[in-house]
From TrEMBL:
Organism expressing this protein natively: Chryseobacterium shandongense
Chain ranges passing through the membrane: 32-52, 64-82, 267-287, 299-320, 602-620, 626-644
Official protein name in the record: P-type Zn(2+) transporter
Gene Ontology molecular functions: ATP binding; ATP hydrolysis activity; cadmium ion transmembrane transporter activity; metal ion binding; P-type zinc transporter activity
Extent of Basic and acidic residues compositional bias: 14-26
Predominant cellular place of this UniProt entry's protein: membrane
Domain P-type ATPase A per the UniProt entry, residue ranges: 149-248
PROSITE patterns: ATPASE_E1_E2
This protein's GO CC annotations: plasma membrane
Family designation: Belongs to the cation transport ATPase (P-type) (TC 3.A.3) family. Type IB subfamily.
Length: 649
């Protein structure tokens, strides 16, 4: 994140992309008092100096003693900034805000305006501390995720518990997780059942009960008895690690407004410096009674006013606040640019299963022809579906029971948009939709287009066996999602590979304007292309894996169920962690509010600075007005930017 300057020397400069400031105190290494200490010392000395100048009028406070006193008052707040200016120049960034404040305050000393020189740097430094505190607050929602991974875990070695570092645990090791402990790595539950608090990952504190064989993730907290988990992913590859990496890199993707301000500051600052030089010397050619000291003072005032800190800090802070607000609500933005895109979204295209419906299918009925052994075919189907991650596979597993691994499957193949095929005992087994039956010329006497349930067709040895009737349910907040999107003026379309009658039923129930079923992945791409051809900004919401081509084509890809797969986190632009579709309009609203705040700050800074710059050039503004135009405006902009962190969406 690009931040304005600090009153403390930086530990490190990064100049590969603009001017990036790393505040030591942002990491919590300093107390608030120590952050303000240099300013407190300077303020105390400045007050004593002003009192000696105007109230006490001590005889000894004259000659060389007066400038030395003010110079000592200047050191605590001035030296760190002058050092920053020197470092910036050394790294090729001559016209930084440090340089502006440095020459303005040193110039004030040069013309004998000692109190004003100290005061300008003092208020500037206080402003920087407040800015650093605001940035720290903006980052706190995100940094709190870093505390979700325990450093150590208890591993069972030969049946005996051993405490070792999380990063040293191997795949296949068994972790013993006591009640109240936090899981350090992703794994598979070996215990029969266990309840977990998943708020670290989803923002939802509601307990999630897992059964034997189900996946449990790093960051989950065990709520009941001692559980055993077999590790399935290395520490660095856990879902939580990927989420953390995503959030920590979020600010690398800059919004266009942010990039513009960065480029603008690089051009604006040198122009201001040359204008200040012009204000100092050009009047000599046009004014009869030219007073160098008076015009230099005006130029110094001009420099203080023109410092771009209000823009340089408040705009990235606004975007970072938006990312933080999203993170607090279980929405992960991969960059501030996606906040801008979401603010302009005109059309949301949604997948059905797992987005608007629970994606938790249940087998309602099984209709197999009597000539087949029902139990045997179910075992075959269960074994084949175990090769798929589709929700249908889970439904069949829950209905049929444990997979019989003695069944030898050969030539297993997943046919996109159709289903699965394999060979068992030299005979072909087909499990999928009725398009799969058509593809392999399997004759059937069912009308699959009728009804609102999903039918899973089964064929074995080139004969139609029958079908499983599977039902899904609409998510509780799906209706609110569609209503909210409509209130935001956003059009909605639902695309699904499920049969059209099921899709139409869900669309009619929710009031979705356009819905299309029986779609292959390439059909979804074509539908999105049609929408984009109408010059509409499109967000696609899906699982981020099967729909990767559509996600890539859309202006912003939103993944539902970010805990479902690594590919989701890697391919989507925005990840909704808790599967709640109502977070879609929430993400759009966060984008709109962020953009609103950013543009409020831009207008505030430009309007006030322009007015005071004109007054300063005309000699009608002093250093005190300059301080308000710089530090005052920066603080107002920061206070406005942090508002987004307090908003409820």
């Amino acid at each position: 994140m690009e931040e304005c300057c600090s009153t403390k020397p930086k530990k490190e400069h990064q100049h590969h992309e603009g001017h990036d400031h790393d505040h030591p105190h942002e990491t919590g290494d300093q107390s608030v008092f120590s952050m303000f200490l240099p300013a407190i010392i300077s303020f105390g000395l400045l007050l004593i100096g002003i009192a000696l100048d105007h109230f006490i009028k001590a005889d000894w406070f004259t000659g060389w003693i007066r400038p030395v006193w003010y110079f000592i008052a200047y050191i605590p707040v001035g030296v760190p900034v002058l050092k920053e200016a020197f470092e910036s120049i050394k790294n090729g960034d001559v016209f930084s805000e440090f340089f502006l404040m440095g020459i303005a305050t040193v110039g004030a000393f040069a013309i004998g305006e000692y109190p004003e020189g100290v005061a300008v740097m003092l208020f500037y430094s206080v402003g920087e501390v407040f800015q650093a505190m605001a940035v720290t607050r903006a980052k706190s929602n995100i940094r709190s995720l870093l505390d979700q991974r325990p450093d150590e875990v208890t591993v069972l070695k030969n049946g005996k518990p051993q405490i070792i570092k999380s990063e040293k645990v191997n795949i296949g090791d068994v972790i013993q997780l006591k009640s109240g402990e936090k899981l350090g790595l992703d794994g598979e539950l070996l215990s029969e059942t266990a309840s977990f608090n998943t708020s670290a990952l989803t923002g939802e504190s509601k307990p999630d009960t897992k059964t034997k064989g189900e996946t449990v993730l790093a960051g989950m907290i065990n709520l009941n008895t001692v559980s055993e988990i077999k590790v399935t992913a290395a520490y660095k590859d856990s879902k939580l690690s990927k989420i953390l990496e995503l959030v920590q890199n979020a600010t690398a993707q800059k919004a266009p407004t942010e990039l513009f301000i960065r480029k603008f500051a690089k051009i604006y600052t040198p122009i201001v410096v040359f204008l200040a030089i012009g204000i100092t010397f050009l009047p000599y050619l046009f004014v009869e009674e030219y007073d160098f000291r008076a015009w230099l003072y005006r130029a110094l005032v001009f420099l203080v006013i023109s410092c771009p800190c209000a823009l340089v800090i408040s705009i990235p802070l606004g975007y970072f606040g938006g990312i933080g607000a999203g993170s607090r609500n279980g929405i992960l933005f991969k960059g501030s640019n996606f906040l801008d895109v979401l603010a302009n979204i005109q059309h949301v295209v949604m997948d059905k299963t797992g987005t608007l419906t629970e994606g938790v299918f249940k087998v309602q009925e099984v209709h197999f022809d009597d000539e087949f052994n029902r139990d045997e075919i179910l075992k075959f189907v269960n074994a084949l579906e175990s090769k798929s991650s589709h929700p249908v596979a889970t439904a069949i597993y829950q209905y049929a029971g444990k997979v019989d691994h003695s069944i030898l499957l050969e030539n297993v193949e997943e046919i996109a948009g159709h289903g699965l095929k394999a060979a068992i005992n030299g005979k072909k087994l087909l499990v999928g939709n009725f398009k799969l039956m058509d593809k392999f010329d399997i004759k059937y006497d069912v009308q699959p287009e009728n009804g609102v349930n999903t039918l899973i067709a089964v064929a074995y040895d080139k004969k139609f066996v029958g079908y499983l009737k599977i039902a899904d349910s609409i998510k509780a907040d799906a209706q609110l999602t569609i209503n909210t999107l409509k209130s935001l003026g956003v059009k909605t379309t639902m695309l699904s590979g499920d049969k059209s009658s099921v899709v139409k039923h869900v669309a009619d129930t929710l009031g979705i304007q356009n819905a299309y079923g029986d779609l292959l992945p390439e059909d979804k791409v074509n539908k999105v292309k049609e929408i984009k051809a109408k010059n509409q900004t499109v967000a696609f919401v899906g699982d981020g894996v099967n729909d990767a081509p559509v996600v890539a084509l859309s202006d912003v890809g939103i993944a539902m169920g970010g805990l479902g797969s690594d590919a989701t986190i890697e391919t989507a632009d925005v990840v909704i962690q808790d599967d709640m579709p109502v977070k879609i309009p929430m993400a759009i609203n966060i984008g709109k509010q962020t953009r609103k705040i950013v543009w409020q700050n831009i207008m505030l800074a430009f309007t006030i600075k322009a007015a005071v710059l004109i007054l300063g050039a005309g000699g009608l503004a002093t250093m005190w007005e300059a301080v308000f135009a710089d530090v005052g405006v920066a603080l107002l902009a920061i206070l406005n930017a942090v508002r987004i962190q307090r908003m409820k969406f």
